[in-house]
């Protein structure tokens, strides 16, 4: 059930952004090192839900039923299941030493003259495997700082290379929450989004490594072997199965089982109770984003039923009058994702907030789901890697003992990714036949896709 378009129906979202951003700014001014994470997003959204329910009630809609319908959307529920399995897999893999294996493999293969681009590659490989830039930064930055100090490289430069690599992998990883959110909200296939995204990210990554190759002259560094190389095999399995097109729930379940089997059979003192405990700890790490996904789904349901999204679609149509087409739509999606991330300092939140609107824009402007998901993910990740008050830079700056504002200027990959994406959107291309159908494959609509 929907009503006539109304700008008033969008005010709950504006209230959420105002509360979340205002609290973060306040705590940052008060000197809190993680100011934008003092008020958690699932709590900040509660007043917005109350306002959304009031607006729906005033428009003759049943607020409770509308809220629950939005929260129970199949895409939202599936996303929550994927978040849980991804969190469990990432934590179990880290507990058995798989993250250390990936890091040590990368460090051991580096030539002394290529430490900076090598650190970017190591961070990118880890982030691509574990699907989290935060986890990558926590794992790689301490090692990178040791390398920087031993070789005489600038800490800010080395840390910026690691953060850039972490955002590169996070943006592309098939188990990243941003990738999951982008593909599910746009109705895109995971592998299609990966290919589309990779075409844009690869030139930016190559340009970043080329610049980093000329940025310093390090001395040889002896890498410490942290873990056996075979511990990286669960990551390899997950990436191979996901890119092969297997259902993402099955991929993560198999990865979790294989990682657990490796730990139980081959890792000393790793037993079944610890394995079960690590799975639960992984679940706990995803509770915040799971709750937020459910509540965002409810808020989106209230705003859509109250006519907010219809009004926004009309406003975009008026803005784009005389300039309809793919470019207008893609730049609109990019602006939507960037603005939401700047205000929330959380790229997954930005995608969840703007996902349904971005999908409407894509359908109106002839943009395929895979391209819409790629643009949405890129322009949510680019500012996230550059915000001095974002979690990534705050964590990296804390570990490296450098200024987050200085660090923002050294995350070259994010700047170059933005330029590459803008060039990609501006470049003339033939119409995409996949834009004609919501499956993103050029085929008639089918049952819900197996791949997230």
Textual characterization of the structure:
There is one protein chain. By secondary structure, this protein is mostly helical. It has 22 helices and no strands. It has helices spanning 11-29, 41-44, 46-58, 63-71, 74-95, 98-108, 115-130, 133-151, 155-172, 177-186, 190-213, 233-243, 248-266, 272-285, 287-305, 308-319, 326-344, 347-364, 369-384, 391-400, 404-408, 412-426. The chain is globular.
Radius of gyration: 22 Å
pLDDT averaged over residues? 81
Element string (H = helix, E = strand)? HHHHHHHHHHHHHHHHHHHHHH
The portion of residues forming beta strands comes to: under 5%
Globular, elongated, flat, extended or rod-shaped: what is the shape? globular
Q: Please, how many helices?
A: 22
Q: Which structural category do the helix and sheet elements fall into?
A: mainly alpha
Termini separation: 27 Å
**Percent helix:** over 70%
Low-confidence stretches: 436-452
The largest β sheet comes out as:
none
DSSP E strands, number: 0
Number of domains: 1
How are the SSEs placed, and which strands pair?
Elements: H1 11-29, H2 41-44, H3 46-58, H4 63-71, H5 74-95, H6 98-108, H7 115-130, H8 133-151, H9 155-172, H10 177-186, H11 190-213, H12 233-243, H13 248-266, H14 272-285, H15 287-305, H16 308-319, H17 326-344, H18 347-364, H19 369-384, H20 391-400, H21 404-408, H22 412-426
Helix pairs in contact: 1-3, 3-4, 3-15, 4-15, 5-10, 5-13, 5-14, 5-15, 6-7, 7-8, 7-9, 7-11, 8-9, 8-20, 9-11, 9-20, 10-18, 10-19, 11-19, 11-22, 12-13, 15-18, 16-18, 17-18, 17-19, 18-19, 19-22
